[in-house]
Amino acid sequence: MKNNSEFINIDITSGVCTVTMNRLDKKNAINPQFALELCNAWDVIDNENEIRVAVLKSADS
Questions:
Q1: Rounded to an integer, what distance in angstroms lies between the CA atom of residue 15 and that of residue 24?
Q2: Residue 56 CA, distance from chain mean position
Q3: pLDDT by residue (tens digit) across 9-59?
Q4: Distance between CA atoms of residues 21 and 30, nearest Å
Q5: In the chain, what is the straight-line distance between the N-terminal and C-terminal CA atoms, in Å?
Q6: How far, in Å, CA of 25 to CA of 52, rounded?
Q7: How far is CA 26 from CA 1, 19, 23, 34, 51, in A?
Q8: d(CA 21, CA 5)
């Protein structure tokens, strides 16, 4: 499963959810839209029973 938004990308593969922050021009500083998308990512994690672990990373790592 992939769920991409403006600043947050979500990829779920084999029980691993990778949440990638992608606002590199602002060093991933959190603005209202970024915060909303990050909260939505945690909602996805809470509601997907197949997820066993979540990884939060920056797009440049």
A1: 27
A2: 7
A3: 999 999 999 999 999 999 999 999 999 999 999 999 999 999 999 999 999
A4: 10
A5: 21
A6: 31
A7: 27, 18, 6, 11, 29
A8: 10
Every domain of the chain and the residues it spans: 2-58
pLDDT of residue 1 exceeding 90, the answer is no
Return the pLDDT at 3: 74
Give the CATH class of 2-58. Answer: alpha beta
In the block, residue with structure tokens 């996805």:
44
The full DSSP string for 1-61 is -EEE-SSEEEEEETTEEEEEE--GGGTT---HHHHHHHHHHHHHHHH-TT--EEEEEETT-
Q: What is the pLDDT of residues 36-48, one digit of tens each?
A: 999 999 999 999 9
